[in-house]
Design a protein that fits this description.
Layout lengths: L7 H6 L12 H12 L7 H5 L6 H11 L17 H21 L7 H5 L13 H8 L2 H15 L4 H4 L7 H14 L9 H11 L15 H15 L4 H28 L4 H32 L4 H27 L20
Length: 352
Amino acid sequence: MTPPGPGPTATAVRRARPHLVDGRGELSGAVTRALRSGSPPEYSPDSVRTADPWGEDLQLSLYLLYEPHYRGFEGVDDAREWDPELLRLRQALEARFLHALRSELADAPRSAEGAFAPLLVEPVDLSGSLSHHLETEGELWHLREYAALRSLYHLKEADPHVWVIPRLTGRAKAAMVAIEYDEFGAGRADRIHARLFADLMADLGLDPTYGRYLDHAPAPLLATVNLMSLFGLHRALRGALVGHFACVEVTSSPGSRRLAGAMRRCGAGAAAEHFYTEHVEADAVHEQVVRHEVIGGLLADEPELEGDVAFGCAATVLLEDRLARHIRAAWDRGRSALRAPLPAADAPRRHG
């Protein structure tokens, strides 16, 4: 399939700074006010200790506190990225999130082989698979909602994984750079995977502006994005980030094949289909490289990180499963899986 050509809508997305959204509780409200005003966040210590680690308030707070390390927010001073009071709050919220993850995964495999082995076999029963549901029963409005949700991940898809590169050596570093080179378009701006996803959004009549659908995203989606930011920003969690990255690559190809079929069946458009067909072959190759060279190289150098690699994989599966259940529960009731339904069309439909 010939990839769609460049368009002004998708080009503009790379330059945009997201708007700062309103909070969803005491903590996220404190973060929003602090970012807008330039002052320290004001909150009660009890609100951190009692915050639901899976809830809207904590997950939005983390997302807002991570974003200064990416694009920042419109009207917010770039210097706030390293504001000690914001970092102190972030550390406390990360501790709540990590504790919840480790508690949920107390019985998860501790070896890389144990964590990844189940992912290497296509399940016989796909009834719980969100991509299978979209391929066989999904409607265009489902695809639009799915793309709007995933935009918070895919428009920064490869960025947090780059942070692990200076923390690796030898085989692991070389292989990681090779995979990331593909993720960033192999030297071509129009082939960057985040750009291809912006083209997909435009085909679906969505606004591909970076961060556009943050206010629509529920906590289960925010948690999937926060996980890779958490792992990426901490050198101590480099093994977990490799486990996250490997899990994404291992599971991507079969899901991408089904999602390409869903886009084709619903007539979503050439760019929408192309994003997923691009990933079917590429991620099948990446899966081999990341398991044998990135993980293999890392554990040859630092065998003590095997438990962290397994944890990163298991945490990724856990949060993806939570998100899939949230989406299916809403759709099975005929409701939107977003916090607010999408407008009929946010951007003109563009055909490449």
